[in-house]
Design a protein that fits this description.
Distance between the termini of chain B: 51 Å
Distance between the termini of chain A: 56 Å
Structural class of chain A: alpha/beta
Helix content of chain B: 40-55%
Number of strands of chain A: 5
Radius of gyration of chain B: 21 Å
Strand order of the largest sheet of chain B: 8-7-6-9
Number of helices of chain B: 15
Number of helices of chain A: 11
Strand content of chain A: 5-15%
Shape of chain B: globular
Helix content of chain A: 25-40%
Largest sheet of chain A: 5 strands, parallel
Radius of gyration of chain A: 19 Å
Oligomer: heterodimer
Largest sheet of chain B: 4 strands, mixed
Largest interface: A-B, 59 and 67 residues
Strand content of chain B: 15-25%
Structural class of chain B: alpha+beta
Shape of chain A: globular
Order of helices and strands of chain A: EHHEEHEHHEHHHHHH
Amino acid sequence: MAKPRIAFFDFACCEGCQLQVINLEAELLDVLDHVDIVTFREAMSEKSDDYDIAFIEGSITRASDIPRLEKIRENATVLIALGACATIAGVNALKNRRTPQENLRIVYGDDGDKFETFPVRPIDQVVEVDYYLHGCPIDKNEFLEMVKALLMGTAPKQWTSAVCVECKLRENECVYDLGRLCMGPISRGGCDAICPAYGNSCEACRGILPDANIPSMVEVLKAHGASEAEIERRFTNFTAIDKLVQEMEQPQ
Amino acid sequence: MSDTIDLNIRIDHLTRVEGHGNIVVDMEAGELTQCKLEIVEAPRFFEAMLEGRLFTEAPHITCRICGICSVGHTTAALRAAETAIGFSPSRQTVQLRKAMLHAEFIQSHILHLYFLAAPDFLGVGSVIPLAETHKDVVKRALRLKKLANDACAVIGGRHVHPISLVVGGFTKLPTVEELQGLRDTIVAALPDVVETVALFKTLEIPHFLRKTEYISLKSDEEYALYEGDIYSSYGVMLPPRRYRHVTNEHVLDHSTAKRTRTAFGTFMVGALARVNNNFDQLSEGAKAVADELGFKTPCFNPFMNNVAQLIETRHCIDDLVAILDDLIATGIVDEIPDPQPKAGRGVGAVEVPRGILYHDYEIDAEGILTQVNCIIPTGQNLSNIEADMRELVHEVIDEPKDQIALKLEMLVRAYDPCISCSTHILDVEFV
């Protein structure tokens, strides 16, 4: 069987998720035994439009991004959103709190009209996405699992339980018991609760679970002393784009 | 003769750099009509994102500006926020942060030297063919990179978007045993650094000189990375809060990243600037590397930035061992970060792999960020890169077009530009 041909592309992002792939120091050479990487601008000059699997990092932030992404979708058999900017628009969505004109004025002043921008979208608002690798940044081992599943022709694992589940399995001290707020109860897991394991709060970088009990989460935050403004910030750090959050903000 | 020459070079989405940039050179009848590095990266508006957020959130939001200099952005954010609220971190906190920053320098420089720059010198398009032909070299690069990532994992949870570094200190501290294990691994890796120097000694660095102003941090205490005053090789010294005297940002049509210039014109920041300005404070091991690779200050060849990165890699390894020895000797003391908001303004000026990074925050009494400005190293270098490109084109104009294009690509890569960073420029004018 011919090796699958893999391509990496990026839109508005920090390229940290692609760096996580290069950070697979112990496994990278083994991966290259099983796949051909044909496009990866950050790391190589060779490029090709002939690929089977496309990994897309970054959010869509301007009109000129759309035809580029559509072309990639046409070329790829399997398209995977790589990291929070691509899966849920991540921190990029913070800018959606203001109009594009306001953002341009704040950053570029009177020169703002020189550049194009529109409200941020995750890539599945533009093209169909086959699989999601969540996280800011992605977990490099989860990337490996994804590649393995694709090579074996099985469906890659898509996480459906909360960060709290893995946090308990890891026997971390609960972040609330440490006196801090945490989004773990409603946030998509798969990260092995790495932030609580290092004493910090879950910031929901993998998005909010579709069946999350938002009102109950709000109650928990309030019970631990969070102000309205604090709750708003917790819900809009990585998940400002989230549909559930938008629904929550609609007057009942 | 060049006065009859027409030349058009257009390299879209330059590869093996971080972010999206195009090289455009047009010469008509020997006259250079266009010579620029177009920045076409999508702007992300971090400044607008940060306004209205809590000061303690700044490190975790701004580290998302750049995956490669994630620790650098974290550090600049911590220092800006702590300066604004008038908080002085403990010596232990500063030592651990310095260790993180050193590890990021090693990771970033090794990535650039082996993965981004070396393929040009070895006549290949990427490191991937080298995995077949030079397997030992690639394995060595991966080992050194892993070492740096492991160091960041022990101290801060991970390299890309570190977890435990917060305003005031650390949410989790490494144990002395973990630090000891790290120290032993680093010392065991020294032969890999020696081999790296031997490899780069065999590569032919293009000869090109252009007198340039070099700007870096400078400190009486040490080779300045974590803190220091702003120093220009033309003899100017300024405290960080007066950074706007050197940066003078402005917007150009062809670039979503803003440009900078000093009173003297364009300037360079980064490894070459630091090594030129602070050579005497390098570790003895790093000075020996400089000697072996024929590096003499002042060096005006931007292609030698690659060599300066290698000199710094050795310095950071030596200094990282010294920091770990110090932490192991003093032991790790439990400290709980508890920063309280206070109205104020703070500038964090930190050396990151590509040069000085400035974060400038204004915070109100409740701890809300009211104004934010970040100036990224590559944004400071862009005008200087173009000045070098103009001079280089004239010097190599008699060579075949593909050779001219390759030299231009190598020049831009030598600066190790971080374009996705540089467009994430956040600017507001302080009056």
